[in-house]
Amino acid sequence: MMEIEQLWEEIDSRVACLPARQTGLMQALHRAAAEDILSPGEFPAFDHSSMDGFAFSSVQPGRCRVTGTIAAGRPLPLQVASGTAVRILTGACIPEGTAAIARQEDCAVEGEDVSLSPGARIAFGENIRRRGGVFRKGDILVRSGTAITPGAIALLASVGVRSLKVTGPASVLHLVTGDEVVGSATSLLPGQIHDSNGPMISALLADMGLAAESRHVPDDGDSLVNRVRETPADLLLISGGAGPGERDHALDALKSAGYAIHSSRLNSRPGKPLIFATKGPGIAFGLPGNPLSHWVCFQVFVKRAILRLHGLPVPEMLGTRMSAKIAPSRDGRRTWTPGAWDSGSGRVRPLPWKHSGDLTPLVDANALILDPTDEGTARMLIL
Amino acid sequence: MMEIEQLWEEIDSRVACLPARQTGLMQALHRAAAEDILSPGEFPAFDHSSMDGFAFSSVQPGRCRVTGTIAAGRPLPLQVASGTAVRILTGACIPEGTAAIARQEDCAVEGEDVSLSPGARIAFGENIRRRGGVFRKGDILVRSGTAITPGAIALLASVGVRSLKVTGPASVLHLVTGDEVVGSATSLLPGQIHDSNGPMISALLADMGLAAESRHVPDDGDSLVNRVRETPADLLLISGGAGPGERDHALDALKSAGYAIHSSRLNSRPGKPLIFATKGPGIAFGLPGNPLSHWVCFQVFVKRAILRLHGLPVPEMLGTRMSAKIAPSRDGRRTWTPGAWDSGSGRVRPLPWKHSGDLTPLVDANALILDPTDEGTARMLIL
């Protein structure tokens, strides 16, 4: 029986980063940069004013005639000569001959003339943002391995980056076994149940920016082997049939298709029959078909493998206090309990399930609790 | 000058939930249920076995002849008569006449017969999951106002719910002003800059499951007024022109288009010129065009309005400790600093920006810090 931490180590050591792909800026959201992203030019690209005000040719300008106005996006061939000033708006190019920009609230306008207000001072270069003052061409904007956040998108857009090399996305195939399982559009015949694992996995993957292909496979060994053999995917998930029963075909199908099995019996409740297998760079999990077990195994193990495929950091278990006690395991079987974690108090509220058919706690769960103690502490995985 | 908390109160009181829409299950992900979602039937829909084992007609069965096998999804017209047993697999219908299911590991098979292993016992109804044992028809599955998580999708799919009433999504229009601002596909002429607010807002909205329409508007008052008047949206965002300058048209455009202005001067750095306005159920923000200010105003105020439109809870400010000190404001202007919050230690690391053109801290920021004290505590908004 493998321990949870051992399986994490197996995943970390066996799942490698996917190859880099050149991707449009918006499609890179939440992917990891696959190389250092460099500034393609100077930023700002030109000297400009950081304020609405007046451009003077001297820091002691006296009374100056205003010869024109320059606004952002309206490059005018203006110069600032001695004894003159140019009205300038935020973001506008700095006219030739400018010593400094005085903020308009520091200026006094009389007719066509402007001077500094009594007591106001300006220093050379004041309120001028210089070309290249933020980034020089070739400066690193985003380091390799960094997740592309909306803020990173804004940063890259501001310097004109339109595409970049990122890792992934992984292709995922979800094979749903179980002759009793039918899609939601079908009315149930006696003995049939609706598939909930397909929609669950689609939604979980959507939260990671991935689209899953979910397909139903009949409960005979050959159909599953053929599907596994035929369909290449970076990540293969088999729903159901992970156990040792006579109609459990996942293990045999993976072996027949050439996968090496790294784990098939785990000290985890739920998740005991979880299978982890690889074939070259391909990753496969055989997941228990029970929806609770399916959800836990995805959150704890599959998500970690996807983060590894995508070159993103994997989450750590955190120490926590529970707002209500749950009994420690007495039989050595380590048990996951869904929890509602409150980032304000730092505490987690256990949401125990009544039995393995009760999906209600999943509605509100944002954490999974492990190893509760009699003292009310536990470890927790934030989802 | 309005305080930050006053503007939050304005948003909370003036932004109402959008009307409910009937939506397919997968499209409901991360929306709020707009009514209690009820179970359309009994769950489980039929009595079934929770184990692989044998169905006996008595809890003291003796040696029984195995008359057949029943698997999940294969309803066979089997009965369990006295002195006989049926091999049954997990999820299979319970044959008529069954008193209990014995787990296969508690049974001894000899030829065509089966009996309980020495010392094994079964109770009446053991390992049988009863029809309606989890939900009865009409039971509440998800309460009104609850966000539809992947777990909720699984729960609803398991009982055959294919569509539900949810709130939103909001339609969002993002108008980018600034004659100097051009799209990423355009080479820059002197004095021009690339639009970063459009991609930023698209990415931030994508994280909320929303698509933004972003359009550039020339820097004259009439174009903006016409755009604001012509284009209905639940949420209108104007980028740039929020200040009191002569080329700042946002306030006048909103007034001319019939919006009531609730705030236009805020004690927030960045964010001082932020405009909040409403027209009937329509919401508008005039956001500073500086990308840092734009990002902060979205995170602190616009996101809150979207959560309100969607009937979702708004975040609370949390007390925190900083892993490095930042100076408290000395001039009464309350200042937001981006932070990298670590859920493990509960501490936040300030990521100060060098100046208002430096977007680098946005790459890693997952929190915004407010009101730092000399003691190293602060308040924090988790993003």
Structural notes for this entry:
The structure is a homodimer of 383-residue chains. By secondary structure, chain A is an alpha+beta fold. Chain A folds into 4 domains: 4-19 and 169-309, Molybdenum Cofactor Biosythetic Enzyme, Chain A (3-Layer(aba) Sandwich), CATH 3.40.980.10; 21-40 and 136-167, Alpha-Beta Complex (Molybdopterin biosynthesis moea protein, domain 2); 48-129, Molybdopterin biosynthesis moea protein, domain 3 (Molybdopterin biosynthesis moeA protein, domain 3, Beta Complex); 318-382, Beta-clip (Beta Barrel), CATH 2.40.340. The first copy, chain A, has 6 helices and 25 strands. Chain A has helices spanning 4-14, 150-158, 197-206, 221-230, 250-256, 291-309; strands at 20-24, 37-38, 48-49, 53-56, 64-70, 84-88, 100-103, 107-110, 113-116, 128-129, 140-142, 163-167, 172-176, 181-182, 193-194, 212-216, 235-239, 260-263, 275-279, 282-287, 318-322, 337-341, 347-350, 367-370, 377-382. The longest helix of chain A has 19 residues, at 291-309. The two termini of chain A are 25 Å apart. The mean pLDDT of chain A is 93. Chains A and B meet through helix 2, strand 15 and helix 3 of A and helix 2, strand 15, helix 3 and helix 7 of B.
